[in-house]
Specification:
Layout (H helix, E strand, L loop, with lengths): L1 H26 L5 H19 L7 H17 L4 H26 L8 H9 L5 H31 L2 H10 L1 H19 L8 H9 L7
Helix pairs in contact: 1-2, 1-4, 1-7, 2-3, 2-4, 4-6, 5-6
Length: 214
């Protein structure tokens, strides 16, 4: 069961990363409507699977219902590009909204910040300065998630649709990667004399990152 869940989790992340490119390709006429509809359905399924832990045993039903919803929209004659863009916007909002809620809730009094909890699992000791730093990093991620949501809403309201589409479909991974690399650079400077976790150990910990969610 654990192995199956791990495979599904990896597959979901791959789908979330790949599906937006099919939607964006549709904007340029480089992907067939069938491919775009399939990518949209896969993206809905993957986002629900990854973010729906609190749905418990209903997560599978929600994922199937979401994919079925895309099929229904296709059946009533909506253009594939319209479906793809709608799904991209909904998934972007759901993903960043859920992450913002999770990280922000962990900053409440009496709770352990998300990044602090992750660091505690990766380290043998947790000095006060590391605890303070990881709390600040949790705040930084909250700002990042909120900025993603605000920028998406602003572009959707006042920019050409093609620009908004490129933002939600293509800029996600580069933005998250840049945020992670920036935090790593800051950590490397501030804690250059502290024992550092190896990359292999960090990646191993990230595989169980969602287990820290309430």
């Amino acid at each position: 069961m654990a192995g199956t869940a791990r495979v599904l989790g990896v597959a979901s992340m791959v789908l979330i990363a790949a599906a937006p490119f099919a939607v964006e390709a549709a904007s340029w006429g480089a992907a067939s409507p069938r491919v775009v509809r399939a990518a949209a359905a896969a993206q809905v399924l993957a986002v629900i699977w990854l973010l729906g832990r609190r749905a418990g045993r209903y997560r599978v039903a929600l994922a199937v219902a979401g994919a079925a919803g895309v099929a229904i929209l296709s059946g009533v004659g909506l253009p594939a590009r319209t479906i793809g863009l709608a799904v991209a916007g909904i998934c972007h909002t759901a993903a960043y909204g859920e992450l913002l809620a999770w990280f922000a809730a962990s900053l409440r009094p009496g709770r352990e910040p998300v990044v602090t909890g992750f660091a505690r699992r990766m380290r043998r000791t947790m000095p006060d300065k590391v605890a303070r730093y990881t709390r600040n990093v949790t705040w930084a991620w909250c700002v990042f998630f909120a900025a993603e949501l605000a920028l998406s809403a602003g572009l959707l309201a006042g920019a050409p649709l093609a620009l908004w589409s490129s933002f939600v479909n293509l800029a996600n991974l580069p933005a998250v990667t840049a945020m992670m690399l920036s935090e790593f650079a800051v950590r490397f400077v501030l804690f250059r004399h502290e024992p550092r976790t190896s990359l292999a150990a960090t990646l191993a910990g990230l595989r169980n990152f969602r287990d820290a969610r309430p």
